[in-house]
Automatic annotation (TrEMBL):
Pfam families: MCAfunc. This is MCAfunc domain-containing protein. The lineage of its organism: Eukaryota, Viridiplantae, Streptophyta, Embryophyta, Tracheophyta. GO terms for biological process: cell surface receptor signaling pathway. It comes from the Eukaryota. Signal peptide: none annotated. InterPro entries: Adaptor_Cbl_N_dom_sf (IPR036537), MCAfunc (IPR045766), MLKL-like_MCAfunc (IPR059179). It comes from Acer negundo (Box elder). Residues 16-129 form the MCAfunc domain.
Amino acid sequence: MMANLAQVAGVNALGLINMIISSARTATTQRRNCEQLAEHVKIIGNLLEKLRSTDLMMRLPAIKEPLDCLEEALKRALELVESCREKSYLYMLAMGWSVVYQFRQVQNEIDRYLRLVPLISLVHEFRMQQFSGITIL
């Protein structure tokens, strides 16, 4: 596997997203699924880029855990896309729906961790309003 764990260790979410997009372009099997996953993570990458440009990550240490989990999910997504480059067409055909299920599973996992980030910022904003004496009706 080209992008083994040693290569992706220390790579942040944005780096993993770029690797997924690049690998999806050269997938030989399950190309449509790889391209859909690449489009999905590209949108997430744009959102993460905006998040990184704010100081929200510095102010909210609670964001680190879901982002770490997101990075792990992105590593699994990269492994899946890489397998579409390395496995033979016959092997992937034999795997059939199992591979499709893996794509769905990794997209759902990515989305699950991504949904936690706005929730954390909402909780933080609520706490800040409570501490500043502002009451919310």
